[in-house]
Amino acid sequence: MIRTIEDLKEKGVEENVIYNADCIEALKHFKDNSIDLVLTDPPYNISQKKNVKRINVRNPAMRRVGKRSKTVKFNFGKWDFFETKEEYLDFNRKWTKLCYDKLKPNGSLYCFFSRNLINYLEDILEESGFKVRSTCVWHKTNPMPRLFTKGFVSSCEFFTFATKSSKYFFNTNYVKHNLFEGGICQGNERTEHRTQKPEWLIKELIEISSNKNDIILDPFMGSGTTAVACKKLNRRYIGIEINENYCDIARERLNKVPKRLDNFFNAKAK
């Protein structure tokens, strides 16, 4: 279900909805100490207005007939452009401090971030009051091909695990390293969102750091992966997404997920 900032101001925060709004403006209307887990993927500020030509290094036959390169667009959208590095970091200071205030005392946060700036994120999180626990790595087992003939394939993304206090929920059934291995989105899961994270990874993080019926917040919901994962895992979710088109994609994805039957089976068991 999609709501607007006007709905939020009028009715207060609702569960299992996505607000089509600016996250900083929306978060101001959330109650403090009301969220169990924040799991999000904010803008990386890595978009470029120019395109890049990728050399076709995997198919020599294509090179022989003159198809040596492919144009790759690095413009993810206006939401990923900031005038300066300081403007970008200040933006992250604002939303992280708001998330800290909204988290319950035993709450946690997972945040994906650009590899060359993740140390800045962790400094910002600690300035906001968070305790940074781990810098985690997602190793992509099926990464995009490299752009140039020389250099390494970019097969890793980084994210930070932080908590509000020293007392936090962590599912000890998951004996985990801070390395998560698996593929990028493919097939029917893939949407037009350029930086979409895979459902398997989001599900795993939710199960590690939350219980059933907990409230999960994603202030940069994108095409709805966190909401879809929550619905499948019997968690409550609240999303915020500034792009109306992504909100529509998220709604379509959520509509395809059947309602959980847990309550029905629990009632039958009594």
Structure description:
This protein has nine helices and eleven strands. It is of the alpha/beta class. It has two domains: 2-44 and 82-269, Vaccinia Virus protein VP39 (Rossmann fold), CATH 3.40.50; 46-81, no CATH class. A nine-stranded mixed β-sheet has the order 1-2-11-10-3-6-8-7-9. Strands 4-5 form a two-stranded antiparallel sheet. Residues 61-65 and 263-270 have low confidence and may be disordered.
Characteristics of this structure?
alpha/beta; Rossmann fold; nine-stranded mixed sheet; two-stranded antiparallel sheet; 9 helices; disordered C terminus
> How would you describe the oligomerization state of the chains in this entry?
single chain
Mean pLDDT metric = 86
Please list the strands of the largest sheet in the order they lie side by side.
Answer: 1-2-11-10-3-6-8-7-9
Strand tally is: 11
Task: Describe the largest sheet.
Answer: 9 strands, mixed
Distance between the termini: 32 Å
Q: Over the alpha carbons, how many angstroms does the gyration radius reach?
A: 20 Å
CATH superfamily of the largest domain: Vaccinia Virus protein VP39
Structure annotation, total helices = 9
Order of helices and strands: EHEHEEHEHEHEEEHEHEHH
- CATH fold group of the largest domain: Rossmann fold
CATH class of the largest domain: Alpha Beta
Low-confidence stretches: 61-65, 263-270
How many structural units, i.e. domains?
2
Query: Helicity level, as a percent range?
Result: 25-40%
Overall geometry: globular
What proportion of the residues form beta strands (DSSP E)? 15-25%
- The CATH architecture term of the largest domain is 3-Layer(aba) Sandwich
